[in-house]
């Protein structure tokens, strides 16, 4: 290109050095060049963004088959469907809890890790979940929070702690042999006939797993004869592995049940004396007042053992899903805030310390205000992400709890493709989600422009 052509393209200067505007032909040529470079991106935006939005708006005005025009009927249906209100409520919980929590954690990690020697290693550990796909993270959390202690790590730990400090029932779900003349009351086993002081009462029990019988258990034996002021008896497992033996009778290798609490109750149901069975299942209740009593094996001997918390049930499933998201995205917030922290002028902090400010005052009045642009970007980005959350909510909850954990994106997929087969209503939900996300997208774009102008 000659000097004359370049001058005509970019504009020449007059005698005083001021740049003259380019000629009309050069201006058109500049526009043509710019459009040719932008055309591929504009085509992609049109195909991947503009067309889906326009088609979704159009499709939301028709019924499930796409043939009958409903106008705003799908929107009316959407806002009268209880599941939609559940999804909106859950999205509100996500927006209120997650961005604040993740931003605060990221800020704490970034500031603290800036002051310790092994901060880089810690940052790597915190950021590592970002390398895991959302689906894989969902599978990890669903397995970790399984209700069965044999599968879920969290409940296995809780059961271990509970059994170590609180213990569990000795023989869960045990019951008396039907023909033994015993009854069941309030989850415990009681004698049906009055028992006087100086007499005996036996308790043959069944429905006990052999593995629940302690290793210290010995063969059951007849209790010693009761004397005045005592009640004696034997509690045993009335079952012989492999069959055999006489029902309701001690012998044939039947095991006594140690550690069972036995109470003597008066006519009002008050416990007047107690005892605990020995390794051979025998017990002796002493200091029993005269008169008739009811001998009881209280319910705490037979209550189901502690199995942990129903983390994936309707009540806590949303909290578990939110926790998984925080686990993943705390590293993102930490890295973003740490990058802003590294670009900060440290002289301001040192000057504040020299003036007598403590670390909290330096953080509150110097560090946090200087990091506010980064914090706003992280916060708004997280809001946009949680409004669109889908993967974790779809993967972690079991089918029975999914309706209680659903969000707008999951509800949109369920209505459209997950059994509802109503793409008209699903498109209306998609437009609702777009309307909710759009303001925060605009805020982010304006923030980027403001940062560029500075």
Structural class: alpha+beta
What does the radius of gyration come to? 37 Å
- Count of alpha and pi helical runs: 14
Annotated CATH homologous superfamily of the largest domain: MetI-like
SSE sequence, one letter per element: HHHHHHHEEEEEEEEEEHHHHHHH
- Unreliable spans are 3-12
Give me the CATH fold name of the largest domain.
Answer: MetI-like fold
Largest sheet: 6 strands, antiparallel
Anisotropy-based shape: elongated
| CATH architecture descriptor name of the largest domain | Orthogonal Bundle
Strand content: 5-15%
Residues in helix, %: 40-55%
- How far the N terminus sits from the C terminus, by CA atoms, comes to 36 Å
The CATH class assignment of the largest domain is: Mainly Alpha
Q: Based on DSSP secondary structure assignment, what is the total number of beta strands?
A: 10
- Total domain modules: 3
Give the overall average pLDDT: 86
């Amino acid at each position: 290109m000659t000097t004359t052509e370049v001058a005509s393209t970019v504009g020449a200067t007059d005698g005083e050095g001021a740049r003259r505007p380019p000629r009309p032909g050069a201006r058109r040529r500049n526009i043509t060049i710019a459009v040719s470079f932008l055309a591929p991106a504009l085509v992609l935006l049109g195909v991947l963004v503009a067309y889906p939005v326009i088609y979704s708006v159009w499709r939301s005005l028709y019924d499930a088959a796409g043939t009958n025009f409903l106008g705003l009927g799908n929107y009316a249906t959407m806002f009268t469907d209880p599941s939609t209100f559940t999804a909106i409520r859950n999205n509100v919980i996500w927006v209120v809890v997650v961005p604040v929590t993740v931003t605060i954690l990221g800020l704490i990690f970034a500031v603290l890790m800036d002051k310790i020697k092994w901060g880089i290693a810690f940052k790597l550990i915190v950021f590592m979940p970002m390398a895991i796909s959302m689906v894989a993270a969902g599978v990890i959390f669903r397995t970790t929070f399984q209700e069965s202690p044999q599968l879920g790590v969290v409940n296995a730990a809780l059961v271990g702690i509970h059994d170590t400090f609180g213990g569990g029932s000795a023989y869960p779900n045990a019951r008396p042999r039907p023909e033994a003349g015993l009854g069941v009351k309030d989850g415990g086993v009681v004698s049906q006939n009055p028992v006087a002081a100086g007499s005996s009462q036996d308790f043959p029990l069944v429905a006990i797993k052999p593995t629940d019988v302690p290793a210290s258990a010995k063969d059951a034996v007849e209790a010693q004869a009761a004397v005045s002021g005592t009640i004696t008896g034997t509690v045993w497992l009335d079952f012989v592995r492999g069959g055999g033996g006489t029902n309701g009778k001690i012998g044939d290798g039947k095991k006594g049940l140690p550690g069972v609490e036995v109470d003597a109750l008066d006519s009002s149901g008050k416990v007047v004396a107690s005892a605990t069975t020995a390794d051979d299942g025998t017990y002796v209740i002493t200091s029993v007042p005269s008169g008739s009593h009811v001998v009881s094996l209280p319910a705490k001997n037979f209550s189901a053992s502690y199995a942990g918390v129903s983390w994936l049930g309707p009540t806590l499933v949303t909290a578990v899903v939110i926790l998984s998201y925080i686990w993943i995205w705390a590293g993102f917030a930490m890295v973003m805030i740490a990058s802003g922290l590294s670009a900060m002028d440290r002289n301001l902090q040192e000057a504040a310390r020299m003036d007598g400010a403590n670390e909290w005052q330096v953080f509150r009045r110097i560090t946090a205000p200087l990091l506010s642009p980064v914090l706003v970007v992280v916060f708004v980005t997280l809001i946009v992400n949680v409004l669109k959350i889908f993967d974790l909510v779809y993967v972690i909850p079991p089918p029975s709890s999914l309706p209680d954990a659903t969000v707008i994106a999951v509800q949109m997929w369920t209505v459209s493709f997950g059994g509802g087969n109503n793409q008209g209503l699903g498109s209306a939900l998609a437009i609702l989600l777009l309307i909710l996300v759009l303001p925060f997208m605009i805020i982010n774009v304006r923030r980027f422009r403001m940062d560029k102008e500075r």
